[in-house]
Amino acid sequence: MGKGAQNYGKKDSFDKRSSNREIFPAWAKDVGECEEKFQVNRECGLSKEEVEKRRQIFGYNELEHHEGTSIFKLILDQLNDTLVRILLAAAVVSFVLAWYDGDEGGEMEITAFVEPLVIFLILIVNAIVGIWQETNAEKALEALKEIQSEHAMVLRDGKRVSNLPAKELVPGDIVELRIGDKVPADMRVLSLVSSTFRVEQGSLTGESEAVSKTVKAVAEDSDIQGKKCMVFAGTTVVNGNCICLVTQIGMDTEIGKVHSQIQEASESEEDTPLKKKLNEFGEALTAIIGVVCILVWLINVKYFLTWEYVDGWPRNFKFSFEKCTYYFEIAVALAVAAIPEGLPAVITTCLALGTRKMAQKNALVRKLPSVETLGCTTVICSDKTGTLTTNQMAAAKLVAMGSSADSLRPFDVEGTTYDPCDGKIRGWPIGRMDANLQMIAKISALCNDAGVERSGNHYVSIGIPTEAALKVLAEKMGHPESSDSGSSSSHTNELRCSQLWKQMEHRIATLEFDRDRKSMSVIVNSRSGKKTLLVKGAVENVLERSSFMQLLDGSIVKLNQHSRDLILKSLNEMSTSALRCLGFAYKDDLSEFATYNGDEEHPAHQLLLNPSSYSSIESNLIFAGMAGLRDPPRKEVRQAIEDCRAAGIRVMVITGDNKNTAEAICREIGVFGSHEDISSRSLTGKDFMEVADKKSYLRQSGGLLFSRAEPRHKQDIVKLLKEDGEVVAMTGDGVNDAPALKLADIGIAMGIAGTEVAKEASDMVLADDNFSTIVAAVGEGRSIYNNMKAFIRYMISSNIGEVVSIFLTAALGIPEGMIPVQLLWVNLVTDGPPATALGFNPQDKDIMKKPPRRSDDSLISAWILFRYLVIGLYVGIATVGVFIIWYTHSSFLGIDLSRDGHSLVSYSQLSNWDQCSSWEGFSVSPFTAGGLQFKFDDPCDYFRSGKIKASTLSLSVLVAIEMFNSLNALSEDGSLLTMPPWVNPWLLLAMSISFGLHFLILYVPFLAQVFGIVPLSLNEWLLVLAVSLPVILIDEMLKFVGRCTSGLRASSGSKSSKQKAE
Membrane-spanning regions, if any (predicted)? Predict the structure, then answer.
């Protein structure tokens, strides 16, 4: 036990068991009680033995390292998708069949292996993308560790250890904090060494300004912002120094709680709305594939299993394994045909293109699925500071003295940033500034330790933001020796006026701010040798110590009660507008400092060393005026809020700042009306947690405000909204926002002011920290979703056509028209470019005038499904029909098909081709295709290897129909006459690429061999076009019916959704 602890008895055992049961509320106890509880004396600190004992109990002061998900589990998670499982099963079966065919000496071994290998490749690429996205989630926790302090100045065994690793701190340690230090643990302030001590804790609590700390205890039920006697790990000291007592370390600190909440939120992440819809589609597709496969087998069972009836019972069963395998391959082909293998790749490509568009609008997407999720956002929960506001203090109002004691001169100050050229002062007098305005400008410039500098394209403050804002105000006011007073637009140097004031008046002493007198002052020495005291501080305090006031012309008059009331009335008006007001005063009569020039030997210097004398120095002041400052709202935000309202998106503001300031900002930006009663819409986080029916409260239409919110409040609000079926976008920049960012459907971090923790926990980062960027991104997300629906409709209609084609082939008993590798080529390569190009469809002009889609909206409506069943039926009939036409007709629609010399057969022969060996006198003649001649020693081979030309025609018809069908997908119900193909030139290019790829496999001999096809003649291409083009006419008729019945369908849809809700 340490020396200082020897005086304390052992009546209060200090162990982890008691601390786990109940956290000691150090903020609500006085300093003595805290020292007694932690058994330590601030003069000596803990002993080495006691430190070791406590480390055994509490461990090290560091955040836990959560074990990440194993790579094996991540791989298994990627298989938790219906479409992926079907694909995997199809690939395995294809591989086994290819292996079996090879062992049996079958033909086309290369073709057989291409299909399973390509499917495996697709699955591997999708798995890599999925694993990469999931491992990103761990980075938020790592970033949180980086903001922890590395070292601390600690008192142990009565000696100061200046550079102790922060992780070695234990509860009870005595730590000294100085300006610039990062706080290493949660600590109770024991004593202030300097007159004031301020900490920047906005990243943890959401407060927009540095907070002054005190040693005085506060109420036990105080929120985190109200704990003025506590400092928290990860925050930064911006002014003064103090002695603290460590109360919580590691995971027990406030930042440790955030760490736990991030971990908890990451474990409860849900699928995006699109992923849910695709999973539902996959499950439906599985059922459909199963039914169709069973039907195919039932239709064809007679070919591989026969029996005879003897005495009414089936006997003499005959089973053909070769034919069974053949029809099993058809079932596999059916699975390959039904699954849109290219869909994952096209979705990824479309989302990636969406991220590029969003990046151009300053929204940097970190997780691809977020692009689409943005489109169905129903609620935006926005932080105030830095998102709705600029996070830059700016003067909004200036009040100067008038020409008489009963008049004031108010001026509105424009501008919302630290840029001195951003706005001007309205109503500013033309010509040289009067004496009163000169004095206000002088105090703003000289009674000030801050600065402003350019950083890239914007300006940043150096020092305390309020003081930086006063420096900018001084620039806008101008200088009496400068010709451009009232505007600094012509200044090349950011703080030119302040520099001129410094040249005229030299600062020789500073009376630091303290919380008792709530003011700061400086003594300046002019060129003439005259000493002046310049004071700024809280208006009430400065006014109380003022005996005189300066009028417009510089004359000094007695400050009477009427003048005081007038100034206080103006102060009250400014305060109700959530302005932070500062008063300006000065004093010329400084007899003690008449000969003082900063010399430490001067008798007056002793007065400056004693802060208790500052109040007497700052007495009998001359009041000059006051300024109202604030963190102003961004100019674009009001319109963005209006856009949200038009788009059916509710905006909720959740901030750690105080209630009055937040309400004033919300009224100004349009979340609330300027005179609206908001008593039921504005609550503190603590008050909200006491509401009985929280979900009903959150369902209110219009905007809501939650002020003084802690991290857990933000999480609870997001969780409740999600449980109620809302799609939630949450913005934030601080460490305290990270858990809610992780939990929300879309977490949006600030790129400029945001902490690394917030950025790593987010799905999207705003490069310009601007709320209006979110609204633009939502519009882009909606557009992307519409385009994705277009290409999903297109791909699914194509796959329906392929399924119908295979089903008809099996049902009619004709030879297999297309082999699996050909279907795979169509699904992946030929369909890919048009589907991707549909992602470039232009954004609808009224996209942000429509309400967000419901999360239970189907990806494909009943009408769209019917339409594409009709289209699919035609695709199937066309591909099978052209196969039959080649075998049975010498010409079709006037197109001569007999030039290759192939033999014609009847439809009956074609549908019973497996009985060819029993036909008497059946023979076929050789035919040519692309310079090759096909001869048949066995006439029955005409239906096997001889089907190569008919199969090529079927494949070409399928490709051509799908290209024309992509034009149909340009609009869900719009005719090609109103939305012609050239509205999306990328689609025309994609069609050209797909046709080019098809020509490539047709006319390159090696590729033609791999895909089992041959080149086509001009007449055969005419046949392909004649059979394919009607798909446009059919869909145009269906679209016309759709347009005529859209109102009827909408009303029935709303009725069914109401019934569901009931």
Answer: 82-100, 112-132, 284-305, 325-353, 791-814, 860-887, 986-1004, 1010-1033
Note the pLDDT tens digit of each residue in 682-735. 998 888 988 888 889 998 888 899 988 877 888 889 989 988 888 899 887 777
**Contact predicate 749/732, CB 8 Å:** yes
Query: Is the CB of residue 545 less than 8 Å from the CB of residue 607?
Result: no
d(CA 448, CA 202): 22
- The DSSP line for 991-1027 is HHHHHHHHHHHHHSHHHHHHHT-----HHHHHHHHHH
Angle at 873 between CA 870 and CA 874, to 5 degrees: 90
Provide the 8-state DSSP code for 939. Answer: G
What is the helix, strand, coil percentage profile of the chain, to 5?
50, 15, 30
Backbone angles phi, psi at 25, to 5 degrees: -80, 75
pLDDT surpassing 80 at residue 123: no
Q: What are the DSSP calls for 753-798, one per residue? A: S--HHHHHH-SEEETT--HHHHHHHHHHHHHHHHHHHHHHHHHHHH
Contact by Cβ (8 Å): 741, 758 = yes
Nearest Cα residue to 963 out of 765, 841, 795: 795
Alpha helices per DSSP H over 218-368: 254-267, 273-304, 321-338, 343-360
Q: Collapsing DSSP states into helix, strand and coil, what is residue 892?
A: strand
CB distance 624 to 829 below 8 Å: no
Distance CA 174, CA 40 (A): 8
512: left (phi over 0), alpha (psi -120 to 50) or beta: beta
Find residue 156's DSSP bridge partners. 46, 159
Under 8 Å between Cβ of 657 and 211: no
* pLDDT at position 555 over 90: yes
Q: What is the mean pLDDT of residues 198-209?
A: 76
Of the listed ranges 354-358, 363-367, 478-482, the least confidently predicted one is 478-482
Enter the tokens of residue 977. 């006459």
Please answer whether residues 22 and 46 qualify as being in contact, where contact means their C-beta atoms are separated by less than 8 angstroms: no
- Nearest Cα to Cα of residue 374 among 385, 386, 383, 363: 363
Q: For residue 815, what pLDDT is reported? A: 85
Name the nearest CA neighbour of 1057 among 857, 850, 852, 789. 857
Select from 693, 742, 686, 689 the least CA-distant residue to 709. 686
Q: Are strands 891-892 and 531-538 parallel, antiparallel or unpaired?
A: unpaired
Please report the pLDDT score of residue 566 as a whole number. 94
- Bridge partners of 524, per DSSP, are 507, 532
Task: Give the closest residue to 80 by CA, choosing from 32, 123, 27.
Answer: 123
* Rg over CA atoms, the chain: 39
- How many residues comprise the chain? 1062
Rounded Cα distance, 942 and 11, in Å: 102
Q: 110 versus 768: which is more confidently predicted?
A: 768
Cβ(624)–Cβ(550) under 8 Å?
A: yes
pTM over 0.70: no
Catalytic annotation, residues = 383
pLDDT of residue 489 exceeding 50, the answer is no
Instruction: Report the 10 Å Cβ neighbour count for 712.
Output: 17
* Residue 766 pLDDT > 90: no
Residue 666 class from Cβ within 10 Å (0-12 exposed, 13-18 middle, 19+ buried)? buried
Cα of 705 vs its chain's centroid, Å = 21
Q: Which residue has the tokens 């400084």?
A: 590
Rounded Cα distance, 104 and 1021, in Å? 37
One-letter amino acid for residue 672 of the chain: F
Give the span between the Cα atoms of 312 and 363, in whole angstroms: 76
DSSP state of 384: I
Is the pLDDT assigned to residue 126 strictly greater than 70? no
Tokens of 557: 């008059």
More confident residue, 1009 or 521: 521
- Tokens linked to 816: 């297999």
Q: Does the pLDDT value for residue 4 go beyond 50?
A: no
Interaxial angle between packed helices 273-304 and 321-338, expressed in degrees from 0 to 180 and rounded to the nearest 10? 160
Among 202, 610, 184, smallest CA distance to 393 is for 202
DSSP reduced 3-state for 678: coil
